[in-house]
Amino acid sequence: MKSSTTRISPLFLAFLGLTALGGVLATFDSELAVTTGVLLLVLGGWTTSLCLHEFGHAVTAFRGGDLSVRSKGYLTLDPRRYTDPILSIVLPLIFVALGGIPLPGGAVWINHHALRSRRTESMVSLAGPLTNLVLGVLIAAAVAVVPMPLGLAAGLSYLAFLQVIAFVLNILPIPGLDGYGAIEPYLSAPARHFGEKARPWAPLVLFLLLIGVPFVGRMFFQLAYFVFGLLGGDTAMTAYGQAVFRSVFGF
């Protein structure tokens, strides 16, 4: 197999720079600077993680036999390859501001027939959410171990929690989400046929339930906080970071 060629786009580097700038501003002793810093840190960090999530799918598929992901440009760390401005940035931002639930924002089209085995198909689906989980662990660990100003710790904690939410959400075995993709290769033909029909609308129904039905939303966040706690996340810092972030939008 030919080796993959991964290129990092200037836009990806720009979002990394935006994240770093937010982190610097969050260290200042100024309410405006902290608020701006948390906003930039979360927005830049979330967009960067979205790109890494989809890249995880792509590179796993490439190593599993689908060489087409290279010609499609998915091995380039470029958010434009994975995102739609409305579906991938604007709507997720609105959902985060309203309820703290980041929508899955990207898409990598995989040629499943080229993958070597059902296990490989499952690993391709799991690669994205596991990327979010690893990012959440690393960010939460940095907050726990490295002394830092309150604003920076709050912004990073909220960003780490969003990674955990993305993991918990995407790992659900619901058509259209990565968790379903992981088990789909092992389902019967009728079950897979039903999943194909449900794929376009099942995630939307889930999001409406999470936002519109208090009990469902509460159970989901309890699960996310439980996982976050297991990873050593600071829930108090997370709550503060979320409050600062949402204050920009008047919530």
UniProtKB/TrEMBL annotation:
Chain segments annotated as transmembrane: 86-110, 130-150, 156-177, 198-217
Domain of life: Bacteria
Intracellular or extracellular location(s): Cell membrane
GO molecular function, one term: metallopeptidase activity
Keyword annotations of the record: Cell membrane, Hydrolase, Membrane, Metal-binding, Metalloprotease, Protease, Transmembrane, Transmembrane helix, Zinc
Membrane topology: Multi-pass membrane protein
Gene Ontology terms: biological process: proteolysis
CDD domains assigned: S2P-M50_like_1
Presence of keyword Protease: yes
Coiled coil (residue ranges): none
Needed cofactors: Zn(2+)
GO cellular component, one term: plasma membrane
Organism, as annotated: Saccharopolyspora hirsuta
Name of the protein in its database record: Site-2 protease family protein
Record family assignment: Belongs to the peptidase M50B family.
